[in-house]
Amino acid sequence: MRLVTLTELQPHKDWYLPNPYIHSMYRRPGTWKEAAHSMVQWHNETLNIHTHLWPGIMWLYMAYTCVGEEYYLRAPWYSQTVILFGYLSGAIMGLASGLAHTFYYINPRWASLCWKMDYVGIIGMGLSHQLLDSIILFRGVYDWPSLYYFLTLCQLLFGTYCAYDILVDRSGINWGIIYTGISCIFLTVPTAVLSYQIGQQELAISTFTCSLLIGIGGTIFYQGKLPERFWNPNGIFTIFNSHVYHHILAVLAVMAAFNCFHCLYRLSP
After folding, report:
1. Domain assignment of residue 9, yes or no
2. How much is the pLDDT for 234?
3. Considering the chain, what is the average pLDDT of its residues?
4. Taking 60 as the threshold, does the pLDDT of residue 269 lie above it?
5. pLDDT digits (tens, 9 = 90+) for 196-241
6. Phi-psi category of 208—alpha, beta or left, where left has phi over 0 and alpha has psi -120 to 50?
7. In total, how many domains does the chain have?
């Protein structure tokens, strides 16, 4: 596989969206076979692929095995549903991201399909976190089942709309950022504070840590393009680039949210 520079990608700039602060080690547009083979070669997307692909596989396995675990069996049905959905959405996010970073560079059609798949995976994981916070807040801190079911329905409808909007290119809104930000401000922070006050410190810390890591990864690394924006000695951050750190923090955030699953049975009314 021949790697190309940022300058050589100029003819494809309308759909191949490189990091402007990384100037080398890009894969040139090719075939899906070349893309698949690139998974085991060094380039500036190698770690972006594997930092989400393998966690996605692990979370898929956890979705398969969790149904026999004590924390799942002791939880009420609505908590079991969220646990399963959480593991599956984490798996979809990880696999979608890993595959998107593998195949997007083939041609414009593949790029569009891959990034849509990636963004829908992000929405699914965000929805999972919202449903988790709703259980903690409205079936743990407060026992308001009617409000919980109503809010869950609203969340499912809004998440579905966001995914549909992404798939049909309707509005062009970056729902991955907006959806997560709204959820953190209006749901995660109150959930963390109130659950901490009633003695559920593990739940409070885990759900807040999830949003905190997503916020740091999204702002400093994904949007800020650090450290390569200001410093890239000998091209070291060409491979260990900002998106890699963004991925690592996202994985840690998901694991923090999954830590809540082991405590949900304690919230049974």
Report:
1. no
2. 81
3. 93
4. no
5. 998 899 999 999 999 999 999 988 999 999 999 998 888 888 999 9
6. alpha
7. 1
In a domain, 27, yes or no: no
Q: Quick check: is 32 in a domain?
A: no
Q: How far is CA 34 from CA 18, 31, 41, 42, 244, in A?
A: 19, 5, 10, 13, 22
Bridge-based pairing state of the strands 26-27 and 3-4: antiparallel
Residue 134 has pLDDT above 60, yes or no: yes
CATH number at residue 51: 1.20.1070
Provide the residue range defining the domain that includes 250. 45-267
Instruction: Tell me how far CA of residue 46 lies from CA of 119, 130, 140, 240, in angstroms.
Output: 19, 31, 42, 9
- Quick check: is 122 in a domain? yes
Cα separation, 44 vs 241, whole angstroms: 8
Query: Can you say whether the dihedral through the CA atoms of 256, 251, 162, 261 is positive or negative?
Result: negative
